[in-house]
Amino acid sequence: MDSSQTSKNIIVLNTIEQVRKQVKNLKLQNKIIGLVPTMGALHDGHASLIKKAAQECDEVIVSIFVNPTQFGPNEDLDKYPRQLNQDMEVCKSNGASIIFAPSVNEIYPSDEHLTYVVPPEYYQNKLCGLSRKGHFNGVATVVLKLFNIICPDQAFFGLKDAQQLIIIKKMCKDLDIPVKIVACPIIRSNDGLALSSRNAYLTRAGRAKSITINKLLFKIQELYNTGLKSKEKILEIALKELNEDIKLEYLEFLNLNSFKKIDLLEKNTLIAVAATVDNVRLIDNIII
Ligand code: AMP
């Protein structure tokens, strides 16, 4: 994509200098700026964040950047779907006015001796942080860089990546970053599967297996609603929902405020799952 390309009323900017210039103009007009950070391959989950941002802010900037520092050596960085033209349509039709789509070199001109944001170990050594070592250092670093480049008033994140959202909120609090973090609900397809850019890797059979992940979560919710509180007892019943070919990486119950693992379900519990279906790693969660 050229350095500055327009499709009707959406502008695609590729450099930090260009986006800073645009933002400066918008700030001079006292516009409230919303940022939706993404890695592209946009679907209705991302669209819901853009829509929410357009409701809350005067101008919405969507960043599209497949961030190499948050991928591990054996992860899907190279095959991660990239489809800027389709993404432009999603951004435009949901109310964004600017796409910031930098190259890797623009964001990490020298990848040696990089200064990283390192979120607390306490928040990293659970859930996805256990199998994805360094992942949240990469996420926090790129998000802080985007905040410093764009200086948004508000930034919109999906609860789909609950641990990420909690870590970003903590980073803003600890580092006095003046950005309001807005949490947006998980968008699911009709069969209940949480939308994800990685769902594109699933075969038809894989997809049929995958929906048992959300069935498992909703069974837990149902059991809680009938009065069951013990994690052990709940899992004894609920795990029967999960297709037997699915490799469960974790299924954790955590208090949303303290981020502590719990054995007795109560209000404000995050129930988070990661599982692999035919080599596709999926995550999902519900909040009780
Ligand atoms: P990604 O492109 O995967 O980095 O995601 C960008 C943002 O979209 C993150 O804040 C995600 O949590 C959010 N997101 C991804 N999938 C969904 C979904 N199904 N529902 C709501 N938000 C989502």
Description:
The chain has 288 residues and is an alpha/beta fold. The chain has 2 domains: 11-184, Rossmann fold; 197-287, Pantoate--beta-alanine Ligase, Chain: A,domain 2, CATH 3.30.1300. It is built from 10 helices and 10 strands. The protein has a 7-stranded mixed β-sheet with strand order 1-2-5-4-3-6-7, sandwiched between helices. Strands 8-9-10 form a 3-stranded antiparallel β-sheet. Helix 3 (84-93) links the parallel strand 4 and strand 5 (98-100). Helix 7 packs across helix 8. The protein is globular, with a radius of gyration of 19 Å. The structure holds adenosine monophosphate. Adenosine monophosphate is lined by residues 38-39, 45-46, 48-49, 157-158, 160-161, 184, 186-187, 194-197. Residues 38-39, 45-46, 48-49, 157-158, 160-161, 184, 186-187, 194-197 line the site of adenosine monophosphate.
For the residues shown, what is the average pLDDT?
A: 95
Strand order of the largest sheet: 1-2-5-4-3-6-7
Task: Quote the CATH topology of the largest domain.
Answer: Rossmann fold
> How widely separated are the two ends?
44 Å
The CATH C-level name of the largest domain is Alpha Beta
Structural class: alpha/beta
H/E series? EEHEHEHEHHHHEHEHHEEE
Any idea what the CATH architecture of the largest domain is?
A: 3-Layer(aba) Sandwich
Number of helices: 10
What's the helical proportion of residues?
Answer: 25-40%
Overall outline:
globular
Bound small-molecule species: adenosine monophosphate
What is the number of beta strands? 10
Q: Could you give a short account of the major beta sheet?
A: 7 strands, mixed
Strand content: 15-25%
Rg on CA atoms, Å: 19 Å
Q: CATH H level of the largest domain: which superfamily? A: HUPs
| Spans where pLDDT lies below 50 across 5 or more residues | 1-8
- The overall number of domains is 2
